[in-house]
Write a structure and sequence with these properties.
By secondary structure, the protein is an all-alpha fold. Helices cover 69% and strands 2% of the residues. Strands 1-2 form a two-stranded antiparallel ribbon. The longest helix is centred in the N-terminal third of the chain and has 26 residues.
């Protein structure tokens, strides 16, 4: 019963919140500002309500509260994942708030964002190690390797990088929520394989998936609301957090393949332009390159979601003996 209840209620709550939030934001004219550097055909999206990520963060928080009160057997490390996801989302919320209410298109400065994100990631890793005894051993396709201090040297910037890559992916209607939905579905599969369908981690993931579906109803092309940094940073923290929860960090390059491609495309664009004064891609992040090549937004969303599913599938085949 719970495996149906958690995603269903999350979907309904998210849908209801969007139904209320969209006209309310339109009424007070709190909509997305489209920057001049963006694709010119995105200008028609200006004024679309944003900060929609709050609508799927709220049912996620409710699900966590219910689990905390009703499941005494809950793995306390689940609170860590919850904390990383929510703090990431709140960082995005502050950024969106500054953009909308303070009328500053850029929001928080890059330095302000990074300070908050590194603090959150550092606290996440420190608590995991000092309170829950997480060591530095990682599983590499059935082999255990002690990474030592390199575990933290790599993990800290990796967490921050992937969360920001999640943010970069949120550039066209339905893209980030679709890709993240596939990632969450993969973690649900892992949760069931490692535990059962009614464990707290599985139920929390099911609530997150229900919220994602509920938001997609309003975010697919043409989007009625954008998730903003609130939603994209929250999803980044959620997906990355569960990789560490399951001590399955090696999964990140496969599960987050699209995020990594989006992030790398921006880095390559900048480096190539500095070296040659020419653009490697028509526009970065790379989903805009495909837009300029004539791909529709729906086609890009489908291809990105399928690519994510393939990455998860390849990982499953590589680790099938250790996962199941």
């Amino acid at each position: 019963m719970e495996v149906v209840l958690y995603p269903a209620l999350a979907l309904i709550i998210t849908a209801v919140l969007n139904k209320v939030m969209i006209p309310a934001l339109r009424k007070v004219k709190l909509g997305q500002k489209i920057l001049e550097i963006g694709p010119n055909w995105h200008k028609c999206k200006e004024g679309t309500p944003t900060m929609g990520g709050a609508t799927f963060m709220i049912p996620f928080a409710i699900a966590m509260l219910v689990l905390a009160l009703t499941k005494p057997e809950i793995d306390k490390r689940l609170y860590l994942v919850f904390g990383l996801a929510m703090i990431s989302g709140l960082t995005g919320f502050i950024d969106d708030y500054v953009k909308l209410f303070k009328k500053r298109n850029e929001g928080l400065t890059p330095l302000q964002k990074l300070v908050l994100q590194f603090a959150a990631a550092g606290a996440f890793l420190a608590i995991d190690a000092l309170v829950f005894g997480r060591g530095t051993v990682i599983e590499l396709f059935g082999n255990s390797v002690d990474a030592g201090v390199w575990y933290y040297i790599v993990s800290l910037p990796l967490i921050v990088y992937l969360i920001n890559c999640s943010n970069l992916t949120d550039g066209i209607d339905g893209l980030e929520i679709s890709v993240s939905g596939v990632m969450i579905a993969f973690w649900i599969m892992i949760a069931i394989a490692l535990g059962a369908v009614d464990t707290p981690d599985t139920l929390l993931l099911l609530a997150a998936f229900g919220g994602a579906v509920g938001f997609f109803i309003f975010n697919h092309h043409p989007a009625k609301i954008f998730m903003g940094d609130t939603g994209s940073l929250f999803l980044g923290g959620l997906v990355v957090g569960f990789a560490y929860f399951y001590k399955f960090e090696i999964a990140l390059p496969f599960v987050c393949l699209i995020w990594i491609i989006e992030g790398v495309s921006v880095v390559l664009q900048v480096l190539y332009f500095k070296a040659t004064k020419k653009r490697l891609f028509k526009m970065a992040p790379i989903h805009h390159h495909f837009e300029k090549c004539g791909f529709s937004e729906n086609k890009i969303v489908i291809l990105a979601s399928l690519t994510t599913a393939v990455g998860c599938g390849v990982l499953t085949l590589l680790c099938i003996n250790t996962i199941f």
